[in-house]
Each structure stands twice: as C-alpha cells, then as structure tokens.
Amino acid sequence: MTLAGKVAVVTGASRGLGRAIAAALAGAGADVALAARSKADLEETARQVQAAGRRALVVRTDVASYAEVETLMGRTIHELGRLDIVVNNSGVAKVAPLVEMTADDWRFMVDVNLTGVFNGCRAAAPHLMAQRSGKIVNVASVLGQVGLPGYTVYAATKGGVIALTRALGVEWARHGIQVNAIAPGWFATPMTETAFADPRINERLTRDIPMRRIGRPEEIGPLAVFLASAASDFMTGQTIFLDGGHSAG
Ligand SMILES: NC(=O)c1ccc[n+]([C@@H]2O[C@H](COP(=O)([O-])OP(=O)(O)OC[C@H]3O[C@@H](n4cnc5c(N)ncnc54)[C@H](OP(=O)(O)O)[C@@H]3O)[C@@H](O)[C@H]2O)c1
User: Fold this and answer.
1) 141 and 154 in contact (C-beta within 8 Å)?
2) Which H/E stretch holds residue 8?
3) Which residues contact 3 (CB under 8 A, 6 or more apart)?
4) What's the domain range around 192?
C-alpha cells in the first residue's frame, strides 16, 4: 500500500477528515497538494505533511469554481511534477428541515458537495487519461444512503456523489482510472463538534451507530491510502461505508 513517488490532491485539507487524509497519504509516501479556502489552516496541514518527510503545496481553492480547480490541478502538476490521486473531500452541511431551506441553501450545498466533486474529476481527467492511470477518492456520507430529518439537501448531494462515483468508475475503467468513494458515518470534526457537544443530540445520533461511538479522524486514513494505492487496482465504482455499522443497522 505504498504511495512512494505519487502525487495527490486533497480538497478540504484545511481541517477535519481532509487534514487526516492528507497526513495519511503523506505517511504512505505521497507528496500532497492541499486545497481549501483557509490558507492559514492549510499551512498547518502542510506542516504535518512535511513532518512525514513529504512535499506539500498549498493552493487556496474554492472547489465550487471550475477555474480555480483547474488551476489547482495545473499547479500540482507544474510544482509537484505529476498527478496520480485526487481526493474530493470538501463539503458543507447546513442542517434544517426542508421547509426552512431556501433555494440559496440548496445551491450552496450542491455547489460545494456535488459540483465540487465534478470539478475535481473533470479538471484532472485530461491528465489522468493521458497517463492511463489515476485514483479518484470521493468523500460521500452515510447520509447519502440513510435518511435523517434536517439533512435532506445534504443527503441529496451525497447520494449524487455515490451515483457519480459508480457511473464514472464504469466510464473510466477503460482508461485505467479507478473511481471509488468513502462514505463516512459520524466523525469528530469541526463540522460535527457543535452537534456532539449537545448531550441530547449526541445521544440521539450515537443511538444510530451499532458501535455506540463516533469515528476518530485518523480512522479514515488507512482506507484513503488503500483506495489511493495499487492495493485497490481491481476495485472501481464502489462506495465503502466507514461508519461503525450505521448503514448496516
Ligand atoms: N464529520 C462527519 O461526521 C462526516 C460524516 C460524513 C461525511 N462527511 C464529509 O466528509 C468531508 C469532510 O468533512 P469534515 O467533517 O472534515 O468537515 P469540516 O471539518 O467542516 O471540513 C470541511 C472541509 O471542506 C472545506 N471546504 C468547505 N467549503 C469549501 C469550498 N467552497 N471550497 C473548498 N473547500 C471547502 C473546508 O475548508 P475551508 O473552509 O478552509 O474552505 C474544510 O477543509 C465532507 O465532504 C463531509 O460532508 C463528514
């Protein structure tokens, strides 16, 4: 499962799961381009990549902008020398009943969670196709498969990521590019800390998880490394649920 000599792009690398994935890929030997909007936080992730002995490139990027994602891929190839792995991890969640969501709320979540994944795949496509190899790892969610009140718009974007992953895995099989996704269950990150700090919400959400605990960010790293490495070369179009049994319950 070594990634020695490989170059990865990780979006949403400024904190949470993206930071943990970037650190794990670097630990397995990859140089990593780190994308998100908060430069200072990306620089902290860059220090973690460098502590693993790998090169880091910070590229301030809004994944909802195709032009910015194209620049991200171009700078990665130019400054780190190649591009092998794209982890489309950036995501946002606004939680409210559908009846209270506005059209702008819908667009905000679709633009980042779904268009952001399209942009990452599309902008990397010419390069990965030309070299006839590549690994796309999309980050979906258990809520792309399991309903939860307040998360309908978010769920729709994540269901879209699961469908995009399946279809693109089939479409790009002939190009030697594997496209898979991780569907995390509940993990302790800045996205979820307010909810889990409330004992009532914590109890309600933990009840859905057979293991009765939430995930630690470092628990996503090994799966990301597997999906980014040659160890998963025969797997494509799949979404792996990493959720303490949530989706199986
Ligand atoms: N934590 C969970 O329980 C959980 C469960 C299932 C799925 N997920 C998914 O896992 C992924 C990571 O979530 P997390 O928990 O680590 O969340 P987080 O702590 O809120 O981090 C989200 C990341 O996405 C980036 N991001 C947001 N909007 C962006 C934009 N327009 N352009 C570029 N980057 C953007 C953020 O960076 P900036 O703000 O600096 O741009 C940040 O790095 C998301 O796709 C999320 O939906 C999380």
Assistant:
1) yes
2) strand 7-11
3) 25, 28, 29, 30, 85, 225, 228, 229
4) 7-248
pTM reported for the whole predicted model? 0.99
The answer to whether residue 2 sits within a structural domain is no
Q: Quick: pLDDT tens for 135-185.
A: 999 999 999 999 999 999 999 999 999 999 999 999 999 999 999 999 999
Instruction: Give the dihedral sign, CA 215/217/223/227.
Output: positive
Dist. CA 113–CA 90, nearest whole Å: 7
Count up the domains in the chain and report the number: 1
The residues lining ligand 1, judged by C-beta closer than 6 Å to any ligand atom, are: 11-12, 14-18, 36-38, 41, 61-64, 89-93, 112, 139, 141, 184, 186-187, 189-192
Could you tell me the CATH number of the domain that includes residue 11?
3.40.50.720
For the chain, give the longest Cα–Cα distance: 52
Residue 1 has pLDDT above 90, yes or no: no
